Amino acid sequence: MLLFDTLRGAKFPLVIPPAAERPLSLYVCGVTPYDTTHIGHAHTFLIFDVLIRYVRHRGGVVRYVRNVTDVDDPLFERATRDGRHWKELAESETDKFHRDCVALNMLPPDHVPRVSQEIDGMLPIIEGLVGRGYAYAAGGSVYFSVAHWPQYGEMVRERLPDRAALLTAANAMGNVPDDPHKRDPLDFVLWRPSNPGEPAWPSPWGAGRPGWHIECTAMATRYLGNQLDIHGGGRDLTFPHHPSEIAQSEAYTGCAPFARFWMHGGLAFLNGEKMSKSLGNLVLIRDAVRRHSTAALRWYLLRTPYRADFNYVTDEVHATEAQVGRLFDALGATGGSGTPLELGRGRDAVLDWLDDDLQTDRALPILAELAEQVSAAAADGRDVGSAQAQLRELLDVFGFPLSRPWPR
Known about the structure:
This protein is α/β, with parallel strands linked by helices. The chain has two domains: 2-265, Rossmann fold (3-Layer(aba) Sandwich), CATH 3.40.50.620; 314-398, Anticodon-binding domain of a subclass of class I aminoacyl-tRNA synthetases (Four Helix Bundle (Hemerythrin (Met), subunit A)). The chain contains 13 helices and 13 strands. The protein has a four-stranded parallel beta sheet. Helix 6 (214-224) packs across helix 7, helix 9 (294-302) crosses helix 10 and helix 12 (360-379) packs antiparallel against helix 13 (385-398).
């Protein structure tokens, strides 16, 4: 199949290894569990859910890792504000997130590592980067030296074409440009002292905690090896998180590329404004699955090209219920003994669009047409058993539940 690689800026063939040889490795950046997850998260993780299902349909096996960032500023700030222990807050929100994923019929990852339980694996990587001259210790912190990685930010060169643009974007994402210990304002933190009241772990540079980026390098390489087939997440991670991962991972392991494909989903908007926790304009997954069926939500989120931004409109999701209802009407239709219906080229067309960079937006209308053909053929007394089996097969690739959904 063809898959778009953000780093190279074009579609390239993704070779799916035979199941008997090895699994296809997939690492997806997960959530920071300081608040309830929203429909933007659902959109991102749904993309990878369909990818896994399609690889399986093609005869492959996927080893899927999705982390939980339970050591981060927003989590600690929220815990302090609410008078809760940070770990209890993280456990509670992580559990809610996992239940949200189940409600949306998402396949569980093979590994769900948590930063707080993986820190011992980060320390040798940081030490190795210091020893190789790619990082330096100063003031109790350790920084990656961007000057030693000239290709830093290559993933976003078209959007952020020069150093000034990179620095502006990094600062907007929490970089500290005036840190007196940095040699370069673009240098990013691998290890830092904890603030008062925050958890701290021992290290060769003093008690503290890891920076944001090093966590994914440690967890991805531990569970999937030094080179990944696919690394994914939302488009908001294309800078600085993923370029920082590339730099530190390839500098440490000496293996390039760190990931053969970088796959990013578009951003979620509500009434034309970017959906985010900081703005508070969220549609929570928990609320969405109470209002709408799982099938309708999956259809609605998959009808937009995965790399494009989408604007969530509740009334449009309601309208989708009728569409998915016709799918299940087709599955439940009773035909006769007349000429058998075969989906044939229609079925192939659905799979062809998935083969071409998971174009679910182009495949779903064909799926709807196939369901109408099945219902019409059944009404005419034709034998639709084989066609219904093929339709179930396609619905499973998209992750639709195979029984009639009703809004919760």
